[in-house]
Amino acid sequence: MKYLILLWAVIFVGNANAQKVQSLFNGKDLAGWYSFIKNRGKNNDSAGVFSVKDGLLHITGQEFGYIVTERKFTDFHLTVEFKWGEKKYPPRENRVRDNGILYYVVDSDRVWPRSIECQIQEGDCGDFWLIDSVTLVIDGARTQATKNTRITKKKDNEKPTGEWNRLEIIAQKGKCTHIMNGEVVNEGTDASLRTGRILIQSEGAEIYYRKVDISAL
């Protein structure tokens, strides 16, 4: 009897944990997201900047813009897997490849909306960008409320260009943690933003995503 009770408990906990993780990207289409392209507006991606093929989200980078969730999130653990493509476009054709995950996105659509960014850029994955006066406490001191504030990662754990990387963002009760390939690379507390949508950029470089999963905390 005790064995059966224990087995039921294990099954229950396992099912609860399985239900907790949600895939924001289904590998088939962009259900649950909408696009915004600079100078084109909402859901007007006639150039095909964002597409899904063979289970991958493909972002050409040819135009600046993004896809953003229709839902808002507060406390969460986000996991994405990405790798760089080959193509780069003006005005960044001679610069390092750039992309990013913005979270706690608020206000109206524009490039770029008020939010916290986890930078995805060759050599800089895990940096914070605090957009439009957002602030964090870093190493005991609150950042200045500026148009764009950068907080450089504490360590580098990005894999070489062309390989798959695993990026995690844990945001809970104002604490924001960026994890690259299993290593914490940046962290801040007491965020001035604590709820909003999640956004994936197009910013001049080709990139692929094969996983975008979220767990509520």
Automatic annotation (TrEMBL):
<feature type="signal peptide">
    <location>
        <begin position="1"/>
        <end position="18"/>
    </location>
</feature>
<dbReference type="InterPro" id="IPR010496">
    <property type="entry name" value="AL/BT2_dom"/>
</dbReference>
<dbReference type="GO" id="GO:0016787">
    <property type="term" value="F:hydrolase activity"/>
</dbReference>
<protein>
    <recommendedName>
        <fullName>3-keto-alpha-glucoside-1,2-lyase/3-keto-2-hydroxy-glucal hydratase domain-containing protein</fullName>
    </recommendedName>
</protein>
<dbReference type="Pfam" id="PF06439">
    <property type="entry name" value="3keto-disac_hyd"/>
</dbReference>
<keyword id="KW-0732">Signal</keyword>
<feature type="domain" description="3-keto-alpha-glucoside-1,2-lyase/3-keto-2-hydroxy-glucal hydratase">
    <location>
        <begin position="22"/>
        <end position="214"/>
    </location>
</feature>
